Please model this.
Amino acid sequence: MSAPLNGTGVGVNASLESLPAEDAAGGVDDLISVVIVNFNAGDYLVAAVESVLSQAEVATEVIVVDNASSDDSLASLRGGVPANKVRVIELDDNYGFAHACNAGITVSRGTSVLLLNPDCRMHAGSLALLKWMVQERPDVGMTGPLIVNPDGSEQRGCRRDIPNPWQIFCVAFGLHRLMPDHPRFRDYAYDAAVLPDRPSEVPAISGACMLVRRAAIDAVGHLDSGYFLHFEDLDWCLRFQSAGFKILFVPGAVVEHTQGVCSRTRPIRVEAHKHRSLVRFLRKNFTAYYPSSFMAVVSALVLARFASVSVRMFVRGRTARRGAWERLMRGPRTPGVKR
Model:
């Protein structure tokens, strides 16, 4: 491993441009640092960076932290974006999403930090609106946009509760579908609820796109790098709440997110990290509030779900590969000849 950076164990191999990484309290006035963690995002990375640079009404610095990608995403970035517009930190291995985010936050200089997935595209004016809400509300620690799917529908999880063991239990047995409006049985995602017409306080937003106040990061601390992938954002939201900071969902700011781009080559491994992180999240934050027997039941349900999801993915993968092989063996179809 390369020499650690600020105690995080980050190995920095190269960059597009050597920018000064100021460590002044509060950061550079009126600057937003945009941290994008990349892992094999392909051309989506360039699109994400360009969508940030198009937010011309906001002063930004763009920091791409690469988790040891094996594709040509960085080559595409270097070929498509001027070197003075983005800084690249290449890690010598993939230490996880939270670890890479922390590497970018550590060298950032802005008074606020935007965490943005490489498969996201910001709509015009979205960053300015998120920034304005942070500036107008000193009690707000982070803001999140309306995240939409490529078809324009609201993406599940961009506004939500902090899931607790009881909610996980209810979702596992489908109780949230039987009583969707009951406060004790409802789902933890809000995407089925009416979209508010103005910014509103929520328990949590999505780590795919969140703008975080520098002073709040200094007070709460960085993301917990013990999470390799998933649930580090909810853990952070919970810590922000515990420190007294508000979290705002801003529906006027819109970001399109194409889910699964970085995980498409290793879907089962990603599911393993997701379910392992969920168990870690529940044990870390709720062990003191629930009986150990119930926590064990919930953990078993999470692991059972992972087994079920993995089997379905494996079967679908084998079916797809078998279908492709059979088409190859059949060869090209001859017009007018039945098979």
About this structure: The radius of gyration is 21 Å.
